[in-house]
Amino acid sequence: MKIKIYILLALCVLFWSSNFILGRYLHNEFEPITLAFYRWLGVFIAVFPLLLWHFKPIILAIKAHFIHALLLAFFSIVCFNTLLYFGLEKTTATNALLINSIFPILVVFLSFVILKYPISKNQTLGIILSTFGVVFLVLQGELAQLFHFKFNSGDLFIISASLTWALYSVLLKYQSLNLKPMLFFTAMVSLGFVLMLPLYLFSTPSISNDIDNVIQHYEIILFMVIFPSILSFLFWNKGILEIGANKTGQFTHLMPLFGTILAYLFLGETLELYHFFGMILIFSGIYLSLFLRQS
Hints:
mainly alpha; 0% strand; 80% helix; globular
């Protein structure tokens, strides 16, 4: 039983949940591409000494698996958070959380299509149960609201973000460039930063204004660099390599749970009875999928 991996993945999702809250908090201060760029610029600065120290093996690994490395960096560094921040500009938190709950389903489906991984009965039932818990939680126990659910452009951005992270998670299991975890992370950040730089330069009207804005919110940006970026990325990669993309993907169902707790602690929102029912369903689904042996 890989309890340590499960704890790391739970922390990973907790940090990502804070990214949703902070991304929404900053959506009036930064353009989505700008926020994503400066977040990853901070990470690139943090890993730059490693890049210099291990430059040759990192470059050789990227050259040997260039297309695969390019796709991994594009999906994880460039696409996911940029699309997420675009989505949080235009959709409600409820819609974002509900849509994000399709991620484990996307991972299982893509693992079946790309990696030919079989889908067990426990995984299927666990996904259904925890997804229902997420739906119950974000709809505040009023399931009738599901019939009034409407998509907007923000919802489509969230769907796209979930799809890109699912693709990354599945492709990572297929090929991790034969690098140690920290060097692989350095390779992804470096390549992703190179891809993001022209997008940012093309989209920003004023670099000096962006820098002033970053300085004004440096505590939040620094938090996003350390926790939702560096630590979450490393924990997530370790989870995929240790227990596979399918099981790792189940932990994203903890995001609305953690989001509710963070909102209660930092935004003063109250906990209702439906929160606890949703939590029970989510944890039951994860237990069924991860811990209960297939009969």
